[in-house]
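Narrative progress, year one. The postdoctoral researcher (J.K.) led the effort to move from monomer predictions toward full complexes, under supervision of the PI. The following entry was the first complex the group processed end to end, covering 598 residues in total.
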Amino acid sequence: MTIVVVGSVAFDTVETPYGRADEVLGGSASFFAVAASFFAPVRIVAVVGEDFPKTEIEFLRSRGIDLEGLTVAAGRTFRWTGRYHEDMNLRDTLDLQLNVFADFAPKLPDSYRDSDICFLANIQPGLQGGVLAQLARPRLVAADTMNHWITGARADLERLLHHCEILTLNDEEAKLLSGERNVIRAARRILEMGPKSVLVKRGEYGVLHFSADSVFAVPAYPLEQVFDPTGAGDTFAGGFIGALARSGDFSTPSLRRAIVYGSVLASFVVEDFSLNRLRTLTLDDIEHRYRQFVALTEF
Amino acid sequence: MTIVVVGSVAFDTVETPYGRADEVLGGSASFFAVAASFFAPVRIVAVVGEDFPKTEIEFLRSRGIDLEGLTVAAGRTFRWTGRYHEDMNLRDTLDLQLNVFADFAPKLPDSYRDSDICFLANIQPGLQGGVLAQLARPRLVAADTMNHWITGARADLERLLHHCEILTLNDEEAKLLSGERNVIRAARRILEMGPKSVLVKRGEYGVLHFSADSVFAVPAYPLEQVFDPTGAGDTFAGGFIGALARSGDFSTPSLRRAIVYGSVLASFVVEDFSLNRLRTLTLDDIEHRYRQFVALTEF
């Protein structure tokens, strides 16, 4: 099955307790697409500026990612600068320059309209909805969101949720969206808002998956050093959706295995800055760590 | 196999976002002993004051707990008053009256000396060590500790660790004891200090178990309402050690199953104040929730 992802491609400048990286490849669509590309064909819809380097275009292309929907616009690429705390669950945004991303109005090339699976990374929910209108008949729609849209574009988000099979968000966002302070009640409430599956991302504590008839908990892979958590959520989504596309099976057991693949990809990406670890990753590495997840959790 | 537990028996006054309970049965040894009593014979070493009610003595006895080591001393029973935050991972101690517990010098009755398994609940590590000297030849020693002893009685604690097979503690305590800020590195460092197993309790995020050749992660059971988290750690330990005693098997697969039983017991105790939920619990309830843990985690 083919996947289309709509989101950001950016330059990140990141400081963690372990070091610093300047103007490295980032953005939700980049992390998602590269992670998903290990499993299935991926098409990307995003915008970059004229300063976006050919070498990164070549890297994305080398992963088999379809770049027809990657627009190069006059101006500079989206830039984000952040600093992580000693407790890397916390970070401060030091600078944000939307640049060409400020006018991003995702338009799907004709060749993308038959995509089987659509992942709407974290952008304005109205824009996310506009993407769906351009798809012929997707078999699965998944979306990510954040606090900013939950409070600032709630009506658009609620409309979108009626058209999504899967919503991914973190603990705090789930509580904010639902008005519930307990994560299980929060997820149940969100299921009533449209999605058939809610995936709650809990960083170093793993992921909870909720559907009408199943709750699934998978821990994060225990890493001795998390180097840079940037992009872990989008990489998780890429591994998860990628594995679903590879299997073509949306049953609960298949969803669970795909969630573990998402966790595997996320566990790799945080081992280095940007998505550097994914540049050298192999499918063998992925399958090996999948077996380590089995060993980590079986009883 | 028989278990001996050394710890506190207390009256707790607890306020949570969901209500308040005054002078209810608490203390590490109470929670542990009642949880373990579902699986194996338990002997208790603790001290209460003359104000300790006969009805609670009868309750403990009704669970088959051997009370020969429960001393009734002149004075009042240990009292703790605490208030939980909206985020129930946080609590404030509002009042602490050690009373008869201030002079607690655990002395094992002769009939306890042949106990197979010893659980040293969270008391001064010097006293914990003194208990070991009174045991004939325990097959397994497990201990719990806390920040207060890690900083205030470090030498005693380090000595004790050489004689423990299992140490239980929380994330923050593991980091403090090891000087490491990553929980995996922290656990590895603690394994070098003596214990063969380190169990890191992470509250609503579950438990991590580390040994030389295995890492095991189990999530907490997702509860729609945590009513009162008091005693969850000791109840976990009671279910865990109880299940180990029932099986008589200390292999890694058996340890893992026992950790799940500990998680099952902890998931019940937080459903009500004090250990009230355990008063009506049955082995059928326990086995049913154990199967729910399988369903929660299998992929």
